[in-house]
Amino acid sequence: MRPSGRRTDQMRDVSIDTAVTRHAEGSCLIRMGDTHVLCTASIDNRVPSFLKNSGLGWVTAEYGMLPRATHSRMRREAKDGQSGRTQEIQRLIGRALRAGVDRVALGERQITIDCDVIQADGGTRCAAITGGWVALKLAVNKLMKAGLVISDPLVDPVAAVSCGIYAGQPVLDLDYPEDSEAGVDGNFIMTAGKLIEIQMAAEGATFSRSQMDTLLDLAGGGIEELHRIQREAVA
């Protein structure tokens, strides 16, 4: 029995509210259970120096947790003093979202996705990627409406979900009580039917190939559900 009472293949309740800030070109608040992340997309007509005159666009991300996103207060992180975890997560978010972008169609501009964790209960990086795509799509829609982008550079939605082995059972979408005690913990990032990245680690026990296949199947079902919610949010 999972602490939440969910089935092994059951996601937490997921909701995405859009246009939650006034100034960002795209924004949403994603809730995956008790994990809540604010995602905004900002368009800049400049690109990093290594892409100047290349005709290619760029998508990057920044990630942070508010001081009371967790049980006890954390210190705010200055950009030049970010923890290794924060740097790793924001690189992951940018890398994941770029995998779903036609950078030629986007044109020579940069879109920055800011992901701020308001409340954390496990799976914050997965929620940030899933909500980050929605904010990115809303920003791209504005570019297309203004005639600045001709064809949609976002072919398929990008979403992420955690899976792991808790109390000896493969389970989908770990919350904090499960994540903190999982024998195996993994994050799966996918487009529609294709993998972008898998992060897997044996936290307390090794795992077999058959268990890995089960986790991948669980993740695939969860990603399909997240894609449906994403499409409804941006419709």
Automatic annotation (TrEMBL):
GO terms for molecular function: 3'-5'-RNA exonuclease activity; tRNA binding; tRNA nucleotidyltransferase activity. It comes from the Bacteria. Keywords: Nucleotidyltransferase, RNA-binding, rRNA processing, Transferase, tRNA processing, tRNA-binding. The keyword tRNA-binding applies. GO terms for biological process: rRNA 3'-end processing; rRNA catabolic process; tRNA processing. The keyword RNA-binding applies. Pfam families: RNase_PH, RNase_PH_C. Its EC number is 2.7.7.56. Gene3D superfamilies: GHMP Kinase, N-terminal domain. Residues 10-139, 156-219 form the Exoribonuclease phosphorolytic domain. It catalyses: tRNA(n+1) + phosphate = tRNA(n) + a ribonucleoside 5'-diphosphate. SUPFAM superfamilies: Ribonuclease PH domain 2-like (SSF55666), Ribosomal protein S5 domain 2-like (SSF54211). PROSITE patterns: RIBONUCLEASE_PH. It is an enzyme of class 2 (transferase). Phosphate binds at residues 85, 123-125. Homohexameric ring arranged as a trimer of dimers. Belongs to the RNase PH family. Phosphorolytic 3'-5' exoribonuclease that plays an important role in tRNA 3'-end maturation. Removes nucleotide residues following the 3'-CCA terminus of tRNAs; can also add nucleotides to the ends of RNA molecules by using nucleoside diphosphates as substrates, but this may not be physiologically important. Probably plays a role in initiation of 16S rRNA degradation (leading to ribosome degradation) during starvation. This is Ribonuclease PH.
